[in-house]
Amino acid sequence: MPKFTRIADDTVQSSTKVSLSGPRSGVAKAIIAAAAIGGVLLAGASCTTNPYTGETQFAAYSDDQLSQLSAQAWQELKTETPTLSSGAQYQRVQRVWKRVAAATPKAGEAWDVQVFDSDQVNAFVMPGNRVGVYTGLLNIVENDDQLAAVLGHEVAHAIYRHANQRATRAAAASAAVQIGGSVLAGGSNGAVSADQVSALGSVAANLGVVLPYSRNAELEADLRGVDYMHGAGYDADAAVRLWEVMEAAGGQRTADFLSTHPNPQYRREQIRQYIQQKGY
Ligand SMILES: [Zn+2]
């Protein structure tokens, strides 16, 4: 039983973090739904090779599954928040994005890159090559190099399949909770029907947006992101300065990718050392 208790605590922690910093409502519902779907999806979990990095990863979802599951959440975001389709801010994001993306293992792939008209200082990536940048962030970055650091960070999350890692972790935790629940309920069968799975799927996909990534995932995105923006010809030092700017923005306007990290100085220092090591 201690094992179940520990995993359940993880779930509660995630839930708390999200409700404090997540941009969207209904997160608790998403986590409960994920608890129901988790056990079923884990049955199909397997080790797969990441085609972009060659790494072997344990994944509860295929990339196609996650992309399909994310489609509805992405649509909802685009419905809830106005998006730009022209103008200087729109052009700027598209221009810098194209350059950074072309310097990554995902070069040549189609992306849906949206600029959300909102003062949130934030950017995110969703499975299925979907990227969102808020105008609040555009108003704060000092130059295109800093924007390139943000976009490099986001594309790195996609390339390293961090959403899949996160969803797999959530599924594992919820499966354990479900099994624990069955045991407590006297071993009754907690089976979930196929209909329930598909209904819950889109909710579970919100995990691709609202749950924080692990610190390791954030650090990996930071460093690989620097590789990409440097490869695209942007100034790598801007990645260090970016986090100073983000930190100065602070308070309620802090980005999700800062909220998961208790020590921005440490993060900045890691990036600075990495740039030095690589000779960028
Ligand atoms: Zn991140």
UniProtKB/TrEMBL annotation:
InterPro entries: Mito/Outer_Membr_Metalloprot (IPR051156), Peptidase_M48 (IPR001915). Belongs to the peptidase M48 family. CDD domains: M48C_Oma1_like. Gene3D superfamilies: Metalloproteases ('zincins'), catalytic domain. It comes from Henriciella pelagia. This is Peptidase M48. Pfam families: Peptidase_M48. The keyword Phosphoprotein does not apply. Binds 1 zinc ion per subunit. Its cofactor is Zn(2+).
